[in-house]
Amino acid sequence: MDKKIAFFDIDGTMVNVPNGMMHPSSETMRVLNEFKRQGNYIVVATARGSAPGSVQDIDFDGYIFNDGHYILFDKEVWLDDIFSKEDIAKQMAAYKKHGGKSTFCGHVQTWCEYLDNPMVIDHREMFSGTRARPMDQIEKFTAEDVEAISCCVLFETTEQLEACYNELKEDFTMVPYYTGLIRMDVYKKGFTKGPACQYMYEKLGIPRENTYAFGDGINDKEMLQLVGHGIAMGNGLDEIKAVADDITDTVDEDGIAKAFKKYFNI
Q1: Which end of the chain, N or C, is more open, meaning fewer C-beta atoms within 10 Å of its C-beta?
Q2: Residue 19: which residues within 8 A CB-CB, separation 6 or more?
Q3: Is-contact 21 52, C-beta < 8 A?
Q4: Sheet holding 76-80, edge to edge
Q5: pTM (2 decimals)?
Q6: The pLDDT value given to residue 1
Q7: Is the pLDDT assigned to residue 180 strictly greater than 90?
Q8: What gap in Å lies between CA 236 and CA 102, rounded to an integer?
């Protein structure tokens, strides 16, 4: 049997933190583990910089973190696109100029001087399920202190976001979000999530027709387009559904498991 590979976004695809769904459903865990047991690969593809505890009960073969800028497969690092000190300084100046509230994320440490800002608190609740003030983030730092691979910047208006985006677009890869919390994720120039998935399956020698991806958000668009079977969650954005090869049920209604039943009879 030819190997297959399936890529999975986390937020809105395997979990739904705003709705209180903090872990993948038992049925999702079952079908992913069975798919892997049959000799196929399962890979996380997320904007997050690490796997939350909620998905660590699933034995993923690989992880595409930071929208494609930190890639691991079988515990081996394939790519680690960390910012230079000059990159950090340039970003800090632009964010200050345009009113951005930034959080720099490394593989272990996080740097944020806006922990009590309402936008930062809302973002924390959206992705961590808590408004509690973290105790392990560094609040006072200079560009020289930061060893980050990504930055999430929050803005009060889309005009601020656009102005900052236009100032930095020649130097960085950025993923802007105009709905919900106005923000952008910032990385070094290079991969985004979709090309990172393509890089992985080509490196593994898996033909495109044996590749699958599940997502719901704007940063999943290329991923769904660059695999053989791009499957949008029922709760996904209309823009994502428009480019998908198929649409499954919502994350809250076992959309992944239902697609696995349809495609693999698992």
Answers
A1: N
A2: 252
A3: no
A4: 76-80, 70-73, 62-65, 41-45, 5-8, 211-215, 229-232, 246-247
A5: 0.88
A6: 60
A7: no
A8: 26
